[in-house]
Every structure is written in structure tokens, then in C-alpha cells.
């Protein structure tokens, strides 16, 4: 049975030049695979070079458009662009409230307050209506930096995002200078700079419209705000290319339907000010990746021929003997790894790893976020001196954050439901794992819920570089798992290369 695409309403302006507004929204919706219902809030007299005039649609006409849609094509998400005036904005507010009485509806507010050429579309009364009425209802607001300044004043994007009043915000900066195109993301899931190398393009008219529509479409497809921002960034960047412009000004941005499979479009999410685009690192892991909490068990796994083992030694809150206990667990594991030319990875405790001579650590992203600025510098220095790093990821925004750290591998999980530890994440499944393996700029390790060798075979077939086994290694020994991995490597992935699904 074919699934119907989600419905997104765009309430925005009609660009007579076909570059921005509803025209850009339609191109974005087609590329991301949703059904767009375009409702005109304003008509513009414009071409590729300038906006000559704006004619707000009478409120009764806008209301009639939305009433007709509500009865037959109710939205999963609404995107607003150029609204034309206070009365048009209030029509939108009334419909958002009515629709939300029936079902959840995401709202993305792109506060189009002026043209790139300098023409203003908003007076103080409209700015006040945005602040008091529309933005507090927004799931995500997507102003550019000039629009954010008009709405809440000058300042750092993090502070501006908090003042906007929306649940989440992405303050876009694609039209600013610099080697990276940077957008400030503020959401319940993640905060930071969403970045891609800046692309030279003659066709960039309508990028803000494309970004906001892409974000609304991703929300309609079930992604949370931070993941939706990653997808919107990818979609919009895919439309920046150097085809001949149809007029004297910038040509329209034309996002590509295949953007979701283009690894060059995966952004990085920097928690602090980025110093540049991260490079790729080598030193990943391959094959069966064992995980144990016992140094003696790790040594036995190395003796049986396993080449990669992670040692997880958990520290209790009142564990006074923990440093000595960790050293005792590390000693046999590290000796065996060196003896067999294998790789020992220590989970979490990177300072202790350095002291003990372990040169490979694994961190969860909650561990990254807990680091102070000084600790980040210390960890970066250790990495520059040869410390290798593996990072966990469970969602698109965590994958983007991993990109910023340039790890030696990225773990994707949980592939299947797992009882090893409590997590809010939905299982990634083999489809998401295959997407991670194709898109990530580092080797990908599948982890979570692997209880039988045939599951490891499936992980190997996706293109992942390694698969984690937490339980089961002691029960049947290493060889059956290694054979399962070899069988999977010999298979071609049959799952296709489509969209990832939401994991939260």
C-alpha cells in the first residue's frame, strides 16, 4: 500500500519572478516529498533583481483559502513566509489555534521582514504581532540574522533565539561572509552552529523560503526540530548550483530530490564557534567489535582472535576503590591487546586511558556535552598527540555533532531494541544503519540488540565497518561471530538507499 505524503501548508507571498515565496516553497516540497498547499497571503510585483511592490491579500480571501483547505487537506505542518500585514497574521493565528484543537500541527515561522535588496515588508505593528501572537505559537522560527535583530535586537544568536519566544529557532546565516555557512540552532534536543562549507552559486534566490519549507516538511515527516534543521540544511544546500540565471539577478534555488543520499551535504553541528571544516581521520575499526566489563574477559577474547574489544568499567557514585579497580581491569586487557596486535578501546574514561597507555577511547555524546571548555581543549590536545576517538550517535543531529569532532568511527544505534541500558531512542533498524554507513565521513559501527550471529551478518551487509556484540561472545566463542561477519560482507545490501526514519 502506497503511503500518502504528509500535507504541508505554506502561507506566504507569490513572487511574480518565480524565485522566492510560494514558488520556492513548491520546489522544496517536491524535492523533500511532501504535498504542499500554497495559500497566498500577499502578491508581489518583483523580478530577479528587485521587489517593486507588495499587495497584501484581503484577510477574508486568505481566510477562505485556509477554510477550504481545512476541510479536505488538513496539515501536519504549516510554514509561514511573507504575510503582508497584521490582519493577515491574525488570520493565520486563528487557524493555527483551530487546527490544533483537532490534532497536533507543527508551525514554522519564517518572518519575512524585508528583501535582500533592502525593501522592508514590516512596520512596527507587524513586528509586535510577530512577537506577541505568532512566534509564541511557533514550533520553529527561522529568521535570518537581520530579521532576528529587528525582532529582538542585536546580540549573539544564542541570546536572540531565546528571546524569539518560539519552542525552537534556527537563525540562518547563509548570506553572511566566511568559509562556512553557519546557522545557529536552538532546540530542546541540541544547540550549536549547524555548518557546511560555503558554496559559490549564482542561483540562491529563495534560500530562506526553501530552508523553512524543508524544515516544516521534515517535521511533517515525523522528525524533531533538531533533526528537521539538519534535513533543511541539506535540502537547501543541494539547491545552490551554478546554472545560468533566468534574469539579471540571482536565479532561484533548485533543491534536488536526491539530496538525501549526497554525503557532501551532511552538516556538522559545532557546540562552540567552529574553527574550520573538520578533516577526515583514519584508524577506524573493522569486523566484530566485542564489548565487555571484564578485563579478563577482554584478554580471553583477544586470545580467541578478536581484533577489537571495548572495555566498559562503570564507576559507582560511592566507589572509593574505583581507580585501583579500573587499573586492575585494564592491565590484563591491555597486555593481551599488545600481545596480539589488537585494539583495546576504553569507554568514557579518557584521562585514565591516557595514563594507562590506552590510545583509543569511546564517548557518548552526553559525555561530550559535559566537558568544560578547558577539558575540550585538553581532549583536543590528546587527540592531536594520537588519541583515537569513537563517538555514539542516535539521531541526525547527533550524527552532525559527531561530524564536527572528526572521530575515528561513529557508532549508530540501537540497531534493534536493547535492554543493556535505558534509552529514549527508537531502534534505528538496518535502513538507518545503511544510511549512516553511506553518509558519515568516518567508519560506522552498528550497535544495539545484537543477540544472534545472523543479526551481525545483516549489519555487515549494510556497509557498516563493524558490528558490536555485548552478549553472546562468551556463550559460543568468537569464531561463529566472525564467520557471520564474513558472510555479511559477501552480500550486497538489498535494502535500498532511501530516507532515514526518525529515531526520537
From TrEMBL:
GO terms for molecular function: hydroxymethylpyrimidine kinase activity; phosphomethylpyrimidine kinase activity. Residues 298-472 form the Thiamine phosphate synthase/TenI domain. The keyword Ribosomal protein does not apply. GO terms for cellular component: cytosol. GO terms for biological process: thiamine biosynthetic process. Pfam families: Phos_pyr_kin, TMP-TENI. Keywords: Multifunctional enzyme. PANTHER family: HYDROXYMETHYLPYRIMIDINE_PHOSPHOMETHYLPYRIMIDINE KINASE THI20-RELATED, PHOSPHOMETHYLPYRIMIDINE KINASE. This is hydroxymethylpyrimidine kinase. It comes from Pelomonas aquatica.
Amino acid at each position: 500500500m502506497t503511503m500518502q505524503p504528509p500535507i504541508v501548508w505554506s502561507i506566504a507571498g507569490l513572487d511574480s519572478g518565480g524565485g522566492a515565496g510560494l514558488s520556492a516553497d513548491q520546489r522544496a516540497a517536491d524535492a523533500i516529498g511532501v504535498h504542499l498547499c500554497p495559500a497566498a497571503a500577499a502578491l508581489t510585483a518583483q523580478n530577479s533583481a528587485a521587489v517593486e511592490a507588495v499587495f497584501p491579500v484581503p484577510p477574508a480571501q486568505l481566510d477562505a483559502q485556509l477554510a477550504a483547505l481545512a476541510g479536505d487537506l488538513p496539515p501536519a505542518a504549516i510554514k509561514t513566509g511573507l504575510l503582508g500585514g497584521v490582519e493577515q497574521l491574525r488570520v493565520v493565528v486563528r487557524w493555527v489555534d483551530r487546527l490544533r484543537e483537532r490534532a497536533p500541527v507543527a508551525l514554522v515561522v519564517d518572518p519575512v521582514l524585508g528583501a535582500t535588496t533592502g525593501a522592508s515588508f514590516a512596520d512596527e505593528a507587524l513586528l509586535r504581532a510577530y512577537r506577541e501572537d505568532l512566534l509564541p505559537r511557533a514550533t520553529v522560527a527561522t529568521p535570518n540574522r537581520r530579521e532576528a535583530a529587528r525582532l529582538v535586537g542585536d546580540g549573539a544568536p544564542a541570546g536572540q533565539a531565546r528571546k524569539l519566544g518560539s519552542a525552537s529557532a534556527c537563525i540562518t546565516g547563509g548570506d553572511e561572509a566566511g568559509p562556512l555557512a553557519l546557522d545557529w540552532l536552538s532546540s530542546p534536543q541540541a544547540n550549536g552552529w549547524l555548518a557546511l562549507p560555503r558554496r559559490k552559486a549564482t542561483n540562491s534566490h529563495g534560500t530562506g523560503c526553501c530552508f523553512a519549507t524543508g524544515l516544516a516538511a521534515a517535521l511533517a515527516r515525523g522528525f524533531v526540530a533538531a533533526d528537521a534543521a539538519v534535513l533543511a540544511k541539506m535540502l537547501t544546500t543541494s539547491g545552490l548550483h551554478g546554472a545560468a540565471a533566468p534574469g539579471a539577478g540571482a536565479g532561484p534555488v533548485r533543491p534536488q530530490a536526491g539530496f538525501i543520499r549526497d554525503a557532501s551535504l551532511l552538516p556538522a553541528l559545532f557546540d562552540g564557534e567552529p574553527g574550520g571544516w573538520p578533516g577526515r581521520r583514519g584508524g577506524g575499526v573493522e569486523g566484530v567489535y566485542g564489548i565487555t566489563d571484564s578485563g579478563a574477559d577482554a584478554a580471553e577474547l583477544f586470545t580467541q582472535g578478536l581484533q577489537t574489544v571495548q572495555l566498559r568499567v562503570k564507576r559507582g557514585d560511592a566507589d572509593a576503590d574505583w581507580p585501583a579497580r579500573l587499573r586492575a581491569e585494564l592491565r590484563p586487557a591491555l597486555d593481551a591487546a599488545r600481545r596480539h596486535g589488537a585494539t583495546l578501546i576504553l569507554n568514557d574514561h579518557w584521562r585514565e586511558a591516557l595514563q594507562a597507555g590506552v590510545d583509543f577511547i569511546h564517548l557518548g555524546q552526553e559525555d561530550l556535552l559535559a566537558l568544560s571548555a578547558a577539558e575540550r581543549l585538553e581532549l583536543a590536545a590528546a587527540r592531536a598527540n594520537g588519541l583515537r576517538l569513537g563517538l555514539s550517535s542516535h539521531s541526525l543531529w547527533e550524527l552532525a555533532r559527531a561530524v564536527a569532532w572528526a572521530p575515528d568511527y561513529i557508532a549508530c544505534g540501537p540497531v534493534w531494541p536493547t535492554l543493556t541500558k535505558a534509552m529514549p531512542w527508537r531502534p534505528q533498524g538496518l535502513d538507518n544503519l545503511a544510511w549512516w554507513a553511506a553518509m558519515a565521513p568516518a567508519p560506522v559501527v552498528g550497535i544495539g540488540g545484537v543477540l544472534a550471529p545472523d543479526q551481525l551478518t545483516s549489519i555487515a551487509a549494510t556497509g557498516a565497518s563493524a558490528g558490536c556484540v555485548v552478549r553472546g561472545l562468551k556463550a559460543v566463542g568468537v569464531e561463529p561471530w566472525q564467520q557471520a561477519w564474513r558472510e555479511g560482507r559477501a552480500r550486497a545490501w538489498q535494502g535500498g538507499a532511501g530516507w532515514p526514519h526518525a529515531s526520537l
